[in-house]
Write the structure tokens for this entry.
Amino acid sequence: MNPSQLAIARVALETERRRLTEDLAEPPETPSQMTYGSQAAAASEVFAQQRDLALRGKSGKGLDLVTDALARLDDGTFGRCLRCGAAIPEERLEVLPWAAFCIACQQLEKDGR
Ligand SMILES: [Zn+2]
């Protein structure tokens, strides 16, 4: 990748990192004004909380991916597949600047191979 593409990737990654960090910093939703005698309302509060936690877990993982990609930008290995060492296609990095694998390896990782 050329320097301007790397600069674009860095801005995208830093923006994403800020967004994810802010996301994680928000206090978790707490059940507010529980209405006694309304089981349905209570259940939906619990559901909202669980969903919120699930999203948070996802954000945490995303933050790891973004942080790792920024580290690769710094050490000069950005854009190389962590598994096979091949260059990750630029179109892929434009869409997913935190991609750590080429498309073939991503598939293998997903299959758990
Ligand atoms: Zn690969």
In short: DSSP finds four helices and no strands in the chain. Residues 28 and 53 are 8 Å apart (CA to CA). The chain has a mean pLDDT of 85. The two ends are 28 Å apart (CA to CA).
